[in-house]
UniProtKB/TrEMBL annotation:
InterPro entries, A to Z: PcRGLX/YetA-like (IPR045793), PcRGLX/YetA_2nd (IPR048330), PcRGLX/YetA_3rd (IPR048331), PcRGLX_1st (IPR048329), TAT_signal (IPR006311)
Organism: Streptomyces scopuliridis RB72
PROSITE patterns with a match to the protein in the record: TAT (PS51318)
Domain PcRGLX/YetA-like N-terminal RIFT barrel: 48-127
Domain PcRGLX/YetA-like C-terminal alpha/alpha toroid, chain residue ranges per copy: 508-918
Protein name per the record: Tat pathway signal sequence domain protein
Top-level taxon of origin: Bacteria
Occurrences of domain PcRGLX/YetA-like central beta-sandwich (ranges): 137-501
Length: 921
């Protein structure tokens, strides 16, 4: 039976002493006594093992950046690190801190390696003097430009104007110029034209215009330049962009991370507005070689390529000679035409030159490829297929540009254009949104159906689970980030080189620390441990976790969860009658991080090191942090609850935008864009002045007051705490404020008459603390802890020594799954009707580990197996599906839904880590 009284401080100390204080209060809760207090010191000289997520090493990528955690107290700030192959060869590495422990020692560090020097499969990282690259990447600035020199290529980047990348040269040879952003706007749709809303209005072209430029890193291994601006035509500027350019020492390529934030006007019921018809990145490529020495390469499916010359000399009626034909197909310089069969040489002018090519991927399952000689002449079909790589090359034997867009087919409609390759210069455009697709239509999907009052909207919620409110289903302020790569080649790449470049676009090589090192550092609350199948009970749970991940990976493919705005997200609930996810039913459609699937996937990766889980979680993080969150306007800093459209629901809340979902990806990769997203949330407590999350269900009058804002201790505070913790440990510009907010809110939550069970408090934006209520209240929701609160409290208790806060949290953990009688004995009343006991079993496990309480550990496993969710009676099977019941063949499991999947996954992972040694069969 669970304890029925508050936990005195001396009881905590006694329990810790019984179990061994160091083991119980270490980060790695639930481990055996091996994790003693001096474990960190003992590990000081132990290197971290680092390897590639996928086979193949660095491949053709310019380099890789990865994050490594360190145990508390091991490495002081300023420690230098050295990287070596397992064979002992030194590898040049650039290091910078990304997080600190409260004692000032390093918690996370980021490391960059160049592609050319990272051919080994495994490495070791340890404190030491780093090797310097043979050729450093250098950055020089003038008033108008930033020049980055990798030692192989040199890029001149504009600080103003419309050319982001003014030139890219290799040696003295110009490879590309005038790298710029292009936007096509359409102001009117033809909804009744029978053309899918393509519209007949004229297009307007806007060009990206730089408003700010900053060098964020300047070598020696890695350099990063950030450019910000908007798209402009005449006097109008709109669609803010943020572009980062990444360069590595010795690389012939560079990476671009492009973020667009939508600030146009698209309103339901109107056919006029700001509709994006095309959105792209464009470069000009000088064409110096003879037309027969100019080459086009466009990737199809897998390793397939269109391999052509601008002026082809194969397949002619007259044969120039086998060596000549072979050389052209290989992309090699052809001998002087005077040495060819003269029946060809004298007729070269009669062979067409093909200057324009287009590959359009308008769906996840089909692309078309066509070409023409020049504008004003007809297009010729050049092939097609299913899923193109989004990669190509244009140039000649004296050099050219390779270019690629990641997740090309997954984020359709996308397109690659080559124009003018037969002239003095070709234009290459990588379209993030294809101009051949219907215009981007972000209008709300229904007319409100008369739901013009809160009571009517609550009725709608009770039938479709959609929380509708007029004007709230707006895309204004949502964003999308895309990744691109470019190579400045000295000559037309060989077939094998092109395949390698295409692979680097498709799956950028990523270095990663091992699960043992990730777990051993005690990060993320110590709530995960490496996969362990040492007993039948453990193995069974591991099999179930594997089943669930595979199920969702397969559903993404089977159900085509793809598209520019959709890719990365999962669906919420299944419709067993239609054998379809409820994509069109209110709040049951897109999941939008409901009940923390992001955390399930990241914890699943941290403990397994599996590349497929990492990539799935990466796509989810890219999506949910951008598309499901507002970055402009009055709701900036808030996310949108699950719905038919990612921005449709009127519930705009911290629980979706929370930094707790972004932290793992940021620390594992040092991704600057995700870092921006988390920093932007530091002041999101201000949003409670703008929007009351409980406005529709309050029974008493409430007006937001700067010094008395109603904020919940669960989904609200956990999101705020995650942003504050991240800013504090990163040492950001608002770190002092963030730490003060953390401490004051923790102190004033702990001071409430019922602690977390109080439910909410009145928050003062000026003092950063909650008013302490005069009387105890029991206000417990099954949702409060399910959006990162469990994980935040575990981290904060390990970072900030505040026994009263720990007591309050442990009380909440012990009593949520307690009996009503136990709840009433402790608080004077029970918690009412609750749900999600399986998900809350991890709170039992946490309290059991902190208190060394076998009864709580037993209850954790009992609630895990036999309460709700996927219980011991769950049938882990796959029922085949075929037509005419479904659109595409596949399989289903009617029992699976995303709420229970996320909570089962987190409970299984955390229970195994915390009380796995006390698992029941």
């Amino acid at each position: 039976m669970a304890p029925t009284a508050p936990i005195p401080r001396r009881s905590l100390l006694k329990a810790a002493a019984v179990a061994g204080a160091a083991a119980q209060f270490s980060w790695a809760l639930g481990r055996d006594g091996a994790r003693a207090a001096d474990a960190g010191a003992a590990a000081a000289d132990r290197p971290v093992s680092v390897g590639w997520l996928e086979d193949g090493g660095a491949g053709a990528a310019p380099g890789s950046t990865f994050g490594v955690p360190w145990p508390r107290g091991v490495h002081p700030a300023g420690t230098a690190f050295a990287l070596a192959t397992d064979g002992g060869a030194a590898v040049p590495v650039q290091t910078w801190p990304t997080a600190y422990w409260p004692d000032g020692t390093l918690k996370w560090t980021a490391h960059a390696v160049g592609g050319a020097t990272a051919d080994a499969e495994r490495f070791t990282l340890a404190a030491g003097t780093p090797a310097a690259p043979a050729t450093k990447v250098t950055v020089t600035e003038t008033r108008t430009t930033i020049t980055v020199d990798t030692g192989v290529i040199k890029a001149v980047i504009g600080k103003d104007g419309r050319a982001l990348v003014r030139s890219v040269t290799r040696g003295t040879t110009p490879i590309a110029t005038d790298g710029r952003l292009v936007l096509l706007r359409q102001g009117e749709l033809d909804d009744d034209g029978g053309h899918g809303g393509r519209g007949s209005a004229a297009w307007e072209r806007f060009d990206g215009e730089i408003s700010g430029a900053k060098t964020e890193q300047d070598g020696p291994v890695r350099a990063v330049v950030r450019l910000d601006g908007k798209h402009r035509k005449g006097s109008r500027s709109w669609l803010p962009f943020s572009v980062r350019l990444y360069f590595y020492a010795g690389a012939e390529s560079f990476r671009m991370v492009h973020t667009l934030t939508y600030d146009g006007d698209q309103r339901a019921g109107r056919t006029t507005g700001d509709f994006i018809r095309g959105l792209g990145v464009r470069f000009t490529v000088p064409m110096r070689d003879a037309a027969y020495d100019r080459h086009i390469r466009i990737a199809g499916e897998g390793d397939g390529f269109l391999t052509e010359a601008v002026k082809g000399i194969t397949g002619l009626r007259r044969d120039p000679g086998a060596p000549i034909r072979t050389a052209q197909v290989r992309g090699e310089r052809l001998p002087d035409p005077a040495t060819w069969d003269q029946r060809v040489t004298t007729r070269l002018a009669a062979i067409p030159t093909w200057g324009d090519y287009t590959l359009a991927q308008l769906s996840a399952d089909g692309f078309t490829l066509r070409k023409r000689t020049k504008p004003g002449h007809g297009w010729i079909a050049a092939g097609g297929g299913g899923r193109a790589g989004g990669f190509g090359y244009v140039g000649g034997v004296s050099g050219g540009l390779s270019f690629g867009l990641r997740d090309f087919w997954r984020r359709h409609p996308a397109q690659l254009d080559i124009r003018g390759a037969a002239g003095d210069a070709a234009e290459v455009t990588l379209w993030l949104w294809s101009p051949e697709a219907p215009p981007m239509d972000l209008r709300f999907y229904h007319d409100g159906m008369g739901q013009d009052t809160y009571p009517k909207q609550l009725e709608g919620l009770n039938i479709t689970y959609e929380d509708y409110e007029p004007g709230f289903g707006t895309p204004y302020g949502i964003a999308r980030t895309s990744e691109l790569m470019f190579w400045a080649n000295a000559a037309t790449p060989s077939a094998s080189s092109l395949v390698a470049q295409n692979a680097a676009v498709r799956t950028p090589p990523q270095l990663a620390a091992s699960p043992e090192d990730l777990s051993g550092a005690g990060v993320f609350g110590g709530l995960f441990a490496p996969v362990d199948r040492s007993t039948p009970a453990r193995a069974r749970i591991e099999d179930q976790l594997d089943f669930l991940f595979t199920y969702y990976k397969d559903q993404a493919e089977q159900r085509r969860w793809y598209g520019f705005w959709d890719y990365g997200d999962i669906m919420h609930t299944y419709d067993e009658d239609r054998h379809q996810w409820r994509y069109d039913v209110g709040g049951y459609a897109w999941d939008n991080s409901e009940l923390s699937p992001d955390l399930w996937l990241w914890y699943a990766y941290l403990r397994s090191g599996r590349a497929d889980i990492f990539r799935f979680a990466e796509a989810l993080t890219r999506h949910t942090g951008e598309v499901d969150v507002y970055h402009l306007g009055e709701w900036a800093g808030l996310g949108t609850r699950h719905g038919v459209q990612h921005f449709a629901d009127s519930a705009k809340q911290q629980r979706i935008s929370t930094a707790v979902y972004r932290r793992p990806y940021y620390y594992l990769t040092a991704d600057e864009r995700v870092g921006d997203l988390m920093h932007a949330l530091v002041d999101s407590d201000e949003t409670f002045l703008v929007l009351d999350p409980l406005r529709k269900v309050r029974t008493e009058p409430y007006e937001p007051d700067r010094n008395a804002l109603s904020i919940g201790f669960g989904t609200d505070w956990s999101g705020l705490a995650a942003a504050w913790l991240t800013e504090w440990e990163r040492g950001g510009p608002k770190a002092a404020k963030a730490e003060a907010r953390l401490r004051s809110t923790m102190e004033t939550i702990a001071a409430q008459p019922n602690g977390f069970v109080q439910g909410s408090g009145l928050y003062d934006l000026d003092t950063g603390g909650f008013a302490v209520a005069e009387r105890p209240v029991v206000n417990v929701s099954h949702l409060s802890a399910m959006f990162g609160l469990v994980e935040m409290c575990a981290e904060l208790i390990g970072l900030i020594d505040l026994p009263e806060f720990e007591n309050a949290w442990l009380d909440y953990c012990r009593y949520f799954n307690a009996t009503k009688a136990e709840q009433k004995a402790r608080y004077g009343t029970d918690f009412g009707s609750l749900l999600l006991f399986q998900g809350h079993s991890r709170q039992d496990a946490y309290a059991a580990a902190r208190l060394n309480d076998d009864q709580l550990a037993a209850r954790a496993w009992r609630k895990f197996y036999d309460s709700d969710g996927y219980t011991a009676a769950m049938v882990w099977d796959k029922t085949p599906l075929a037509g005419p019941d479904v659109l595409e063949p596949g399989y289903e499991n009617l029992r699976i839904n995303s709420n229970e999947t996320a909570l089962f996954g987190l409970a299984a992972i955390q229970n195994l880590a915390l009380v796995g040694d006390r698992i029941t069969p």
